[in-house]
User: Fold this.
Amino acid sequence: MKRTNRSVIPGFGLTTGITLAILGVVVLIPLASLVVFTAQMSFDEIIETITRDRVLSSFRVSFTTAFIASFINAVMGIILAWVLVKYTFPCKRLIDGMIELPFALPTAVAGIALTALTADTGLVGGFFAKFGIKIAFTQIGITVALVFIGIPFVVRAVQPVLEKLDPAYEEAAGVLGASRSRIFWKVIFPEIVPAALTGFGLAFGRCLGEYGSVVFIAGNKPFETEIAPLIIMSELQEYDYASATTIALVMLVASFVTLFLVNLIQTRNTKILKGGA
Amino acid sequence: MYKETTSSKIVKWSLIGISIAFVVLMLLLPLITVIAEAFKQGFDIYAKAVSDNYTTKAIWLTLEATLLAVIINTVFGLSAAWSLTKFQFKGKKILTTLIDLPVTVSPIIAGLIFLLTFGRQSPIYPLLQDWDIKIVFAVPGIVLATIFVTFPFISRELIPVLEARGNDEEEAAALMGAKGWTIFRKITFPHIKWAFLYGVVLCAARAMGEFGAVSVISGHLRGKTNTLPLHVEILFNEFQYVPAFAVSSILVMLAIVILIARSVIEYRGRKKI
Assistant:
């Protein structure tokens, strides 16, 4: 790499060298090995693997549960961000701090706790069992675990936008006689949509790959509650590295596409954040 | 703000109600469940489960992997932040994207790529065998996978702070003849101290709790390659619920410590800026 602009500050060679060396060993070489390994397989082999009924159904389960969970998170995230920015009430700081819990709590712990809660013998599961609704070991259970994992993403994306939003527009709309709900939908909502979509995308990406919290609550029945990361894991346990790698590649492409879309939205979002102030 | 009407009050308190109910149901209740289940059969059983030999070994391995991940990512994060914010060079955008890549990779895939790189079907496997180096199904693999999943956590906190500050002070110091290390220690570091600590806390939190990646690479050797989250899984799958929740309660307490540390650092950091 060459510097295009000479700087008086020392340390370019050293810091760039360390950065590239660690990046190479930890990220680039391992990721390249995935590509090398796939390149050894024939195209037909790859197609055969990913069109197996069980694999296809795992993709379907993964995408639908991740989508529903991220949607719930988008709605709840906007409400939570709104409440935390606009209102004052007791325990507000505590709630604000709790939002980050899914980042701090190991996913396996979240997984077994949610399983215990939502199983038929659990507090929440027992309540719903009276109405004949099963949560743990169904797709509802997977969605619940994914909602838990995704909570912080939308809240933390929308919060700063709401904080920066100039109240002058709201007041202007209010002076002009707009009702409060009209002000929200016409003035505030369009401003927070990009941020909410960013949070939705990040949560969706995370949910697609999530394993730790889902593995316990899912029950892992093929064709019903088996998600794609679980299939990869079971192929690995049978030492079928080729199948595992192929399925992994599909999931990797899906998460990169998600990330790319998020970045597109985020670029627009940054413009709003910087230009709006 | 305009005056509150009755209907806006109803909206306000119902939204607050929904939020609190959601947080209690989704976040607080799972935490309480862990503690309640852990102490279900009394304190003695709890103490026995927590001080069990396998548990202590798992605690040490988790600490070891977390510490190493924090150290490597600190070295990496500081270097990357310095390189990316103090200099202009070609390929900077690509480098930034590559650094962020690991967080978008599913933990299972993160484990898989290390299995493919260092495992039996890898071209370098015979070489590793000759030198008697064990990576897969051993501690080095766990550490590598942990570093991978926490890779951008520290650099990502530092880069925006350094970018916002600009390079004027460092340039002035360099022109007056200060050495690189002196510039970093006396001028740059005081500004990024809180962002750095914040990154360390996030990195430690994720490192101690990593499950998927470590699960793939560890081979589940009890007492040898079991971290705390993996130990929880084994106990739970063996229907040893009380010990599983007892071990989990250690992780819950660590998570609470991390959340408190996070808020304190964020608060202090804001005050400084």
In short: Strands of chain A lie at 3-5.
